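Quick start: load a record and inspect it. Here is aldehyde dehydrogenase (NAD(+)):
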Amino acid sequence: MTRTDLNFEVFYNIVNGERRSSDKTTFSVDPSTESKLWDVPVASPQDVEDAVRSANEAFKGWSVTPFEDRINKLAQWRDIYTPFVEDFTNLLMAECGKPYAAASGEANEILALFKHNLELRMPEERIEDETRIQTTRHVPVGVVAAICPWNFPMVLSVGKIIPALLTGCTIIVKPSPFTPYSALKMVELAQQIFPPGVVQVIGGDDSIGPALVNHPNINKIAFTGSSATGKRIMASAAGTLKRVTLELGGNDPAIIYPDVDIEKTAPEVVHGCFVFTGQVCVATKRVYIHGSIYDSFLKAMVDAASQLVVGKAADPSTTMGPMQNRMQYEKVRELIKDSQVQGYKFALPPRSIASDKGFYLAPSIVDNPPPTSRIVVEEQFGPIVPVLKWTNEADVIASANGTSSGLGASVWSGDAARAERVARLMQAGSVFVNSWAKTTPRAMLSGHKESGLGGEWGSTGFLEYCNTQVVHVFK
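Running the structure step on this input writes:
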C-alpha cells in the first residue's frame, strides 16, 4: 500500500482525533548513547478530561458499529502500517536500545497481532427449551485506559488496542515516559482510519496513569507492569469497580533434567535468560540444574553467555544491547553488588563494557547462591541470573513454585512426556517444554498468584474487554 505522510521526528498526543502539543514537554534518551531523543508533549489535566469525554462520546457510535465493519477498519489500519515497519523498527532501536533483530521482531509482531485478531469472531450461545430462549452474548465494557510498559512499547500497546476496538470499546493509551515514541506515532497513524475519540494516546509524565485509573468515566484498566503498581491500580479501581486486566512481574524458573543434550540446550536457556538484556516479563530468571550435570551444563551456559556481544543497538555485531533506562540499570547494578558483598560465587563474573555513555551491563551468572538470597527471590529484570543445583524432583518443583510470582516457567528434558507432566505442576500461566518463553498472539498470556489478573491474547483474551449479557425471551 502507498505510504502516507508520517513524520518520525515530531510527536503529539492524540485527543479527539487531533494532534495536540503542549507548553510543557519532556523527552527520553537513547539508551545506547544517553543522547537526547525527541521532545514529546506532557498531557495536561484538561487533555485527560478531553480524552475521556471524547472516548465516551465516540463509544456511542463505535459500540454499535457492525462487527464486520470494525474488522474492516482494523484491516485498513494494518494496511497503512505495513509500509512503515522499517521506520518503526528504527524508532524501537532508538527508544529501547534493541538491536536490529529484536526491534524488527517487535515491529513485525504487530502484523501477527493483526492477523490473529482479525480471525476472531464474537461467540454467542443460544439455548431454547419449552418456556424460553436464552442468548448469551458479549457486549463492550466501555472506555478502556491502557497503561503500557517500556520494554515492549509497541506490542504491549497495540496488543491492547486491537482487541479493545474489535469488541466495540474505545481506548486511551498511556505510554511509558521512558519509551513514548512508537505508541504516539502508531496512534497518530490510526487517526487516518478511525472516527475521532475511538483510539487516543496521552503521555508525558507519571501523573497521567493515576488520573486515568481514578477517573469515574473510565470503565476498564488494561495494565502491564510491576506487581507493586498492579496492586495500587487494583486498589484504586475498586472505588468504581472498574474492570482490570493486570499482566505483572514474574520470577520464571527453568528446570533442567539430566537427560538433556547439554550443548544444544544450554545456549537456548541462556537466550531465555538474556533476551532483550533480560528485560522481559517472561525471561528465565532462575535456572535449576540437576546435580549430575550441574558442572558441565553451567560451563556450557558460561560459554554461550560469553559469546554475547554487548554494544550499541545500531551496531550490526551487537547481540545484546543496553538496559533501557538508568532506573533499571541502577537496580540491576545494586543486585550485582549485593551478590558480590554476600560473597556469592560468580560462574560468569560481571565485566566492564568499554563505553563512555550508555546503560551497558554484560551478562553474569551466579553459581548456586542460597535459595533465600535476593538474586533468587527478587525479579532481576536484567542480565544477571542465578543457577541452582537440584537432585530431588519433588523438591525442585516446590522450589520452582515457591515464590509469590507465577507468570512463566520452562521444563527441559529428553523425555517429553516427563517434561509435560512436570509442566502441568508449575504454578504459572505459561509453561514451555524444551523452549524458552516464546509467546504468541494465539495463546493467552496470563499470570497466576501475584503475576496478574485476567489475561490477554489467545482465542478468548479479547473477551476481557466485554461484559457478558444474557437475554431471556419467554414464549
